[in-house]
Amino acid sequence: MINKSVMKNMKRILLFVGCVCLSWHLLFAQEAQFSEMTTLEQFGGPSSGKYNPTPAERQRIAWWRDAKFGMFMHWGLYAQIAGYWKNEKIRGGEWCLKLNKLPIEEYRKLANYFNPVKFNADEWVSVIKSAGMKYLVITAKHHDGFAMYRSAVSKYNIVDATPFKRDPIKELAEACRKQGIRFGLYYSHSQDWNEPDGYGNNWSWPGYKRDFDKYLDEKSIPQIKELLTQYHPDIIWFDTAGEITEARATQIAGICRSICPDILINSRLMLGKPKGLPLTDFDGSGDNEAFPQYHNVPWELCGTLNHSWGFKQWDTDFRPVKELLYHLIDAVSKNGNYLLNVGPTCEGEITESYTCRLARMGEWLKVNGEAVYSCHGTVWGTEYGEYRQVNGKCKFVASPATWRCTSKENNVYIHILEWPADGVLNLPELDGKVGKVSVLGFPKEKVKVKQESGQTRLLLPETAPDSLVTVVKLVMKK
Predict the structure, then answer these.
(1) Which helix (H) or strand (E) holds 473?
(2) pLDDT digits 0-9 by tens, 366-383
(3) What is the pTM of this model?
(4) CA pair distance 67, 65, nearest whole angstrom
(5) All residues at 6 or more sequence positions from 328 whose CB lies less than 8 Å from its CB, including other chains
(6) What is the pLDDT of residue 43?
């Protein structure tokens, strides 16, 4: 039998162990300061995906691979709701119609009041350009079925059904080309909650036997042809490919290439994993989810600036600029692009909560853009962690997100996200000797490099020169 003294000591030990575990949990929680987009569980080991483009395919996507940073825009009738339905807060943003099973007849009436009189295409594109973004992808038709352009296929469009009577897609296409921004269109080719034959609406027409091919032939494909013929976009960005088989995807891709031979098509064209080139040009990770490791196939991370795609008045939890820069740098380090979303209001405004953060990103890119634009990913395969014995098995254990690496020609760029307290950053061994070392934007700052014992050590200044992200440039000897 255990006496009371032993029991008390055991309780003290358990309490101590519990406190230690909690302390370590809090420590790592503080280190992993970025939100749900930080996914580092499996980085390391061999890179993923196979990529064997023809010279023509490589040339087609070359501008996009150099661009690295683009703007996503979700704009439609859902902006009129702005997160409220009949004075009650609802979820969903651009998905509010489906998630709340709203009556389609009542939702359609929003078009009677949709009048974005403050919309100015030139101003919008200026915001994009000042943010350092190189391309735009905007919703021409989202899942609600409402076209944000003049469509002869369906009168359910912004020109024919609203008091606005203008074609913002046409105006944006012109403004983008005038200001040197590549232009892309998002089109929901399968999901259409306004059509009984479209995919996704399972509440408005109970018992109706849906004819998906009819929807494709009579609305989806004709509108895709309209968009390509009228606006000649550089990108066609498909989404939620319910019931889009490989045969249907091949048909749609063929139509797109016949009208715009150099158009880029994303991997959400079809269900499952596309066969790759020449059907689609680039992969996409999940919404707000970066790939966990270097991905050989060109890919794109699409993410929100707050937590909504379409404008919601009550979503005021905007991500810090440092976090947004992390997602951009992280994507580039893994061979990807970053498509950052903005949800304009029903009046046609991009609010200050968006613009102030975008402008700050643009300021940082003016100084550090050479470490982002036209860059390749990391020169190492496992810099974000190491293999350790975990429960008797060798597993990859991710490190906190403290730094990232991008590269270009014989230059290696180290993006330091969290400044080391002791001024020393330990990196894996580099293939070759470092020649010149500099800090982008801070030519007077001195950094020493020591290459020894199978590692690379950066001896840094006491404090970070840049309060957001400091970039150390290593020029390798040829």
Answers:
(1) strand 470-476
(2) 999 999 999 999 988 655
(3) 0.88
(4) 6
(5) 68, 69, 338, 340, 361, 372
(6) 37
